[in-house]
């Protein structure tokens, strides 16, 4: 087993390995192969495993449950999508979903329970229809601190169903407002907003998290480093108007330096010591090994880091 460097997990008093395992299984290789991949991650010394009811329709949680069960590991899951809009505002519905999460994970409690995509409007407003991935108005008026989902998180923690609570999202500006206005959280996870194409988490997440003692988890490092979705609606947060040029510049830089794109992204992001956990996804055991090898090569050389930084700041 490799000994990974550790960082404080916010103000919780815990120390955790910086590199975590993101169990989204984007390029799903099947249940058995995914189990092998998680086993490889655990054997290699990874302790932080991130999942959600949203990942592979719950199969991600079942895979982690099969491998980890009640074994010692830091398991983070999320309360996520509901088919009926009213359930986003129902504490009872959230508890029903949490019980199913725990059943799949084969655990009595999780280490971190989070809101899946707290930038969605449905969590904060009473709606008659589910607006899938509809963002709340960042300038609008919301009672974030007393919303049902925040009450649910606090209740779950008080009942011992989780040790820590947090929020997640894909839009740093929106998520930054939530963590500014909600007290008592332990962690914030932001995806796609700390990558070689977008570093807006530095502006909207890191200062607030530092002031409030929140652990910061980043994800989605590899999502856009190979291609951009056709006709992607950026909403001004995942990708910017220069994203095509950014990606072209990143590919040229990658070719010139000879490093794999995933290694460039991982080493660029992991160099920021303000981050508690850097999640790296893997669908095959060999990808776990590749992520570990890249991580242990340490920060990029100063000139290469500066070149990636110049690309990211074009957002």
Automatic annotation (TrEMBL):
Pfam families: Aldo_ket_red (PF00248). Residues 28-312 form the NADP-dependent oxidoreductase domain. Gene3D superfamilies: NADP-dependent oxidoreductase domain (3.20.20.100). GO terms for molecular function: oxidoreductase activity. GO terms for cellular component: cytosol. InterPro entries: AKR, NAD(P)_OxRdtase_dom_sf, NADP_OxRdtase_dom. This is Aldo/keto reductase.
């Amino acid at each position: 087993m490799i000994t990974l460097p550790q960082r404080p997990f916010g103000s919780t008093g815990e120390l955790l390995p910086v590199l975590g395992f993101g169990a989204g299984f984007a390029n799903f290789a099947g249940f058995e192969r995914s189990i092998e991949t998680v086993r490889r991650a655990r054997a290699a010394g990874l302790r932080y495993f991130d999942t959600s009811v949203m990942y592979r329709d719950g199969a991600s949680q079942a895979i982690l449950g099969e491998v980890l069960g009640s074994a010692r590991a830091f398991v983070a899951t999320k309360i996520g999508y509901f088919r009926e809009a009213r359930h986003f505002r129902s504490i009872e519905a959230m508890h029903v979903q949490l019980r199913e999460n725990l059943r799949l994970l084969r655990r009595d409690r999780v280490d971190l329970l989070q809101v899946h995509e707290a930038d969605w409007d449905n969590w904060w407003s009473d709606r008659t229809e589910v607006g899938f991935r509809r963002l709340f108005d960042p300038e609008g008026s919301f009672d974030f601190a007393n919303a049902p989902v925040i009450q649910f998180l606090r209740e779950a923690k008080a009942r011992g169903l989780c040790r820590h609570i947090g929020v997640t999202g894909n839009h740093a500006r929106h998520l930054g407002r939530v963590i500014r206005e909600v007290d008592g959280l332990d962690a914030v996870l932001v995806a796609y907003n700390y990558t070689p194409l977008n570093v807006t988490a530095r502006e909207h997440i890191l200062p607030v998290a530092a002031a409030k003692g929140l652990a910061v988890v980043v994800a989605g490092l590899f999502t856009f480093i190979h291609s951009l979705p056709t006709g992607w609606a950026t909403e001004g947060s995942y990708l910017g108007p220069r994203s095509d040029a950014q990606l072209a510049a990143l590919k040229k830089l990658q070719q010139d330096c000879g490093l794999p794109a995933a290694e460039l992204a991982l080493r660029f992001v992991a160099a920021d010591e303000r981050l508690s956990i850097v999640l790296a996804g893997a669908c095959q055991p060999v990808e776990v090994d590749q992520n570990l090898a890249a991580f242990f090569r340490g920060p990029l050389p100063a000139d290469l880091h500066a070149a990636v930084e110049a690309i990211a700041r074009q957002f």
